[in-house]
Fold each of these.
Amino acid sequence: MTNPAQAHAAAFPFVPTVKLLINGELVESSAREWRDVVNPATQEVLARVPFATPEEIQAAVASGKRAFQTWRKTPIGARARIFLKYQQLIRENMKQLAAILTAEQGKTLADAEGDIFRGLEVVEHAANIGGLQMGELANNVANGVDTYTLLQPLGVCAGITPFNFPAMIPLWMFPMAIACGNTFVLKPSEQDPLVTMRLAELALEAGIPPGVLNVVHGGEDVVNAICDHPDIKAVSFVGSTRVGTHVYQRASLAGKRVQCMMGAKNHAVILPDANKEQTINSLVGATFGAAGQRCMAVSVAVLVGDARHWIADLVSTAKTLKINAGVEPGTDVGPVISCAARERVLGLIERGVAEGATLELDGRRPHVPGYEQGNFVGPTIFSGVKPGMSIYDQEIFGPVLCLASAATLDEAIDLINANPNGNGTAIFTQSGAAARKFQEEIDVGQIGINVPIPVPVPLFSFTGSRASKLGDLGPYGKQVVTFYTQTKTVTQRWFDDNSLSVGVNTTIALK
């Protein structure tokens, strides 16, 4: 009798299949459900990805649980050296990784390298785990008594990652978790898993032992299995608010630690004293780079006072951007991830027009010679955007900039603080007083001052807030070491054989 894997191979003889990674081996799935991995610039099917079976998910978790028994005892220096080797391998394979990422995700080759590099920074930080996973000691807190803390690994942890950063966000997760002594089950986006799998192969080459890193693929059923599995102790998620809220509630109810970084509506406040050319260039790059498919993209610019006269210059600069496939030289804006994503963005643009916003630049259905089947949307700019309009209230996740206006900085701050999301925000000004007022009064987790996308370096932690984040601790940096470890507090006293007896003590106090 033909099994599902054999049937799949017979039906698609020339399309490679994406493998699972279980116990250090790349495994052909027995899944009955598969999905095409499609080049968004050409619609070429690059591979087919399986939706892992319950038995395969169980095998991945069981592999991690077995490996944890020895990995947790691996000296911290040995763990660090693996990540020193891993960062070297990523650097050596940067061009290949970027080419894979561009083919399946669509972003430009330069942006793909940036995606990988920002993840590489976290790998480098993981190599410093010896200085990050240290406890504290208080000597002689009472008569001959010391108290100290241990930061010990949790066990099997899991990560669920989105399509827009298929290298960076997996690298946010599993290196820090594994460096802390945990094992890991990763579920990358089913839309673009190829670069993630190549990164997993390089991790094995760097010396990560069998079972310490496992990779499964799939959709909602796999996500739910991760949330429910009793042997998974912690779950990290980056993606949409709808899915993130579901993951947080379901995994929390199952007793797990959970961190969910979710949707956004990032505002940039433009004061009229800002450097005009630098500000406009920053806005255009932060809005339309990666075709707007960044959770930290600037999607709303609040023009304060006379800055409202900058609209024509913004439009003029946006028109200079080159729309093309990510592999073509000089490309600024590649395709969005899928046909469905393109239609959603186009639908929101149409609703923006219908709801009364002024369409200053229309990027609908651009002609891209040689890539007529691509999922392209050009830079699009609306002015006169207000709360209550669909293009303001929803995260568009495409190359669309909404321009709102405010009479004063106070009015701009009130507008931003009234929005439920709190991923990132920025202010452009030459006034130190205005910048200080903004950073003090704004209720958003990550703030840029003349920096449009204020994603912190790995020495710090990603600190989105409000509806953009569920869970107290963010990815990477110091916070994630706390997330991936259990703090044990030890209070100890040792007696010499010749020491005097302290007698019976029935109080709570140490003497």
Amino acid sequence: MSNERYLNALQGIAQKIPPVWMMRQAGRYHKHYQALRQKHSFEELCKIPELAAEVAFGPVDEFDFDVAILFSDILFPLEALGMGLKYTDAGPELGFAIRSKEDLAKLKSVKDSISFMQFQKDAMKLTRERIPKEKSLIGFVGGPWTLFTYAVAGKHEGNLSLPKTLTNVRKEFLEEIVQFLKANIALQLEGGADLIMIFDTAGGDLSPALFEEIVVPGVKSLADAFPGKVGYYSRGTASPHFQSVQRISSLAGYGLDHRWDLRDVFKTEKRMIQGNFDQALLFMEREEFKKTLIDYLKPFQDLAPSERVGWVCGLGHGVMPKTPEDNVKTFVETVRETFR
């Protein structure tokens, strides 16, 4: 079984109460995660399926989210392809960078590397068994362009000058990673996911023209391979970017950050739309936070359910470290009270 509200959002069925889930809902802010992290490394939590299932279960159990999400990381495909990967206090570190044709030649083939990702399929199965039957389960992969920025620069920050200018290796890398991600998505769907999100956090760093050239073909290829089973989220994108991905008819829907007015999006889009309360506002004192959240929800109350078809209520981006847990709980409860 899956969550009725979430399936309604995916299928374009109007409903009074939107489903709720948050990116990074199982992360560092949560005491359930922190307790597990004291005993295990981040990699163990991701790669040992029983632990990944337990991490994903925690916020669904405590906050009653409608959806659980695979606990993993977007960079494991780079490790699978032979780039090496370790997590330090300073962040993830790859064994080498992709800067030349010679570097590309070091990568393993998809055929020889995809079995590395079996732990995600197993984690998906165990998470499905761990969460209540009336909850949905989704998976995710990193966007091809975002994975390229990490492969080239080792991180996503700054103006991304190297990823934007290494045109001699970018096309070949993107072709390879798209094929890998297709196999990766298939594994997660086989594990029981209702939907796979593409998280392309570096997408908004591109101009609309480069976004159309670099990002859209890969996203379209992934969505076309699994029609209605893949959603797309990119932080910091603007209307021209969104219009580019909106034309991909095989996408199940989109996540939009807090820079968007979703009421405008609902006028032209009837697929799943996820978002988009500003995640930083969860640091407010409880009463001020609740008032701010109610004010955010009021415009949605003015819409008939048929006018906000597909809405999945959540944050503009992910839950930030040290976010007060009580406000996360208040968010879920307030959304349901408001629309009940």
